């Protein structure tokens, strides 16, 4: 996971930079601004977990989350959250 972790870390930092730049422009939609602020909080949490070696663990069970999902949703915090998000992911028609 080490190589994947570097990639995820860089993606999180880049996304944070982009969101902060967006916040520094004039926008009036408070709902969107709140979503961005919430995402920034999640990104900061994920970055801190990477730095402390706790990244990728479910906050509820302590089990490791699938790397494939973390690559797509790097701010995921728990297996429950991932299961909820999977409801909206595309699934193949044939298994």
Provide a count of the helices: 4
Tally of DSSP β-strands: 0
The CATH superfamily label reads DksA, coiled-coil domain
Stretches where pLDDT falls below 50 for ≥5 residues?
Answer: none
Helix % is 55-70%
**What is the beta-strand fraction?**
under 5%
Beginning-to-end CA distance, first to last residue: 26 Å
Question: pLDDT average, as an integer?
Answer: 87
N-to-C order of helices and strands: HHHH
Your description of this structure?
This protein is an all-alpha fold. It has a single domain (2-86), classed as DksA, coiled-coil domain (Four Helix Bundle (Hemerythrin (Met), subunit A), Up-down Bundle), CATH 1.20.120.910. Helices cover 62% and strands 0% of the residues. It has helices at residues 2-23, 30-52, 67-72, 79-86. The longest helix is centred in the middle third of the chain and has 23 residues, at 30-52. The chain is globular.
Concise synopsis of the structure shown:
This protein has one domain: DksA, coiled-coil domain (Four Helix Bundle (Hemerythrin (Met), subunit A), Up-down Bundle), CATH 1.20.120.
Sum up the structure in keywords.
95 residues; globular; mainly alpha; Four Helix Bundle (Hemerythrin (Met), subunit A)
Topology:
Elements: H1 2-23, H2 30-52, H3 67-72, H4 79-86
Helix pairs in contact: 1-2
């Amino acid at each position: 996971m080490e190589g994947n972790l570097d990639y995820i870390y860089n993606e999180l930092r880049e996304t944070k930079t982009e969101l902060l730049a967006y916040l520094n422009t004039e926008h009036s939609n408070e709902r969107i601004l709140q979503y961005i602020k919430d995402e920034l909080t999640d990104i900061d949490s994920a970055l801190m977990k990477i730095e402390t070696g706790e990244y990728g663990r479910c906050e509820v069970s302590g089990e490791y989350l699938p790397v494939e999902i973390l690559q797509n949703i790097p701010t995921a915090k728990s297996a429950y959250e991932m299961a909820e998000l999977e409801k909206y992911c595309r699934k193949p028609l044939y298994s």
